[in-house]
Design brief:
Elements (H helix, E strand, L loop, with lengths): L3 E8 L9 H13 L3 E5 L3 H8 L4 E7 L1 E4 L5 E5 L2 E4 L13 E5 L6 H11 L3 E5 L5 H17 L4 H11 L6 E5 L7
Parallel strand pairs: 1-2, 1-3, 3-7, 7-8
Antiparallel strand pairs: 4-5, 5-6, 8-9
Helix pairs in contact: 1-4, 4-5
Length: 182
Amino acid sequence: MALNKKVLILECVPLKDVKNEGIILNEFMQLMYEDKVDLERIKSKNDLIERLKNNKYKYIHISSHGECDEYGECYLETPRGLITTDEFDETSGFKGRICFISACSLGKKSFVETFWANAKPDILIAPQREITYVDAATFWILLYYNHFYLKKTLSSSYKIARESVKSSGAMQYWYAEGYGDY
């Protein structure tokens, strides 16, 4: 299946939270990459799982809340339902994709190792710890601006964003062996 170069932003933060990063990123991306970004509001766990299956996007951005319990089990939160790494596999729509998960703590090793083994993305960027809403939104805007507008490589864009935002040191970049830079 040929992938298009569009960005799919999946907003999983409930509307009641007011701070919906995905909506802000979509507005910003529309300014510079107008016909290359799609935003979808996710209403539930099943909605997210179904939306990811058979998608044709090279870039997937999930805006959500993330939590880890006292046993180190981490999960992604949707408005109705939690998703653990065991629920992602090769058919869940991440295989061969560049994946951005903007959800606190989902860049922790305990989440990433299982997600990586099951879902098989080419690249994953996610925060290893809690990060403020403002810092997360600013990090993603800088990353997208440098990569899509200035045409810098993804790893260079990541480094610029990470160095520019106060708590963006929380963000971690993983890539598949032999994948190189994009």
